[in-house]
Amino acid sequence: MNKLDHLLKILKNMQSAVIAFSGGCDSTFLLKALKLSGIKALAVTTKSEIVPSSEIIFAKKIAGEIGIKHKIIETNEFMTNDFTKNSLDRCYICKDTRFKAISKFAKENGFCSIIEGSNKDDLKDYRPGFKAVKKYGVISPLIDAGFSKKDIRNYSKKLGLITWNKPSSACLATRIPYGYKITKKNLNRIEKSEKFLYSLGFKNIRVRDHDILARIELPSSEFKILCTSGMRKLIERKLRSYGYIFVSVDLSDFKTGSMNRLIKPYNKFRLKNE
Prior knowledge:
Elements: H1 3-12, E1 16-20, H2 25-37, E2 40-47, H3 53-66, E3 70-74, H4 81-85, H5 90-108, E4 113-115, H6 130-135, H7 141-144, H8 149-158, H9 184-199, E5 206-210, E6 213-217, H10 229-241, E7 246-249, H11 263-273
Parallel strand pairs: 1-2, 1-4, 2-3, 6-7
Antiparallel strand pairs: 5-6
Helix pairs in contact: 1-2, 2-3, 2-8
């Protein structure tokens, strides 16, 4: 039995499911598998300040193309003080808020299961959000079926999904270092900055918000786009108009989850000042 058949078998045993749907590569592949399984299914996307508006629009479009009903539920992470403090459990707080809302909706509408799109590669990184997954009994079928990120991209390409090579994405709060307060103002300028950079032709980029400093992360293959002084000045001028005083480019290759390098320094700082 290949991995896709294994996945479809897992899904068929659920009878009905709500999927936490972001429109990313993983959740889109899982949504397509739900469609192929033939069970009753609904895609739910949570909307809040930490999610780029373009991702909400894209998720709705993809769900429509695959042919599964789509529901948008608004959440408000800012109601929790621990979220704005931006501790190491921030991801758990976000996921807890989202899955609480999705779980409530699923129960009220008679769905048997809630599923999400984590893959087995996610188990190798710091992912406090998994605590919320367990808390609400959310199932991770791609992990259960043994799918890696590479597997998902390969199968997505075979199935003709446009997301097969879509860059990894994450909520806007991941651009802010642990211990730095999260504000709606910061999230807004991060979203505007990244939207502007994508409009210039960058394919995979992050703007890390270090208070007065914007640190741009991008793959080394895209450094050449920054080579001209005209481009650098254009970017600096635009990002400064959003409220940054300094604009820098990280010399390392872009890497998802790079902010996790701050976990040890954050813990040392916290222990020193307690």
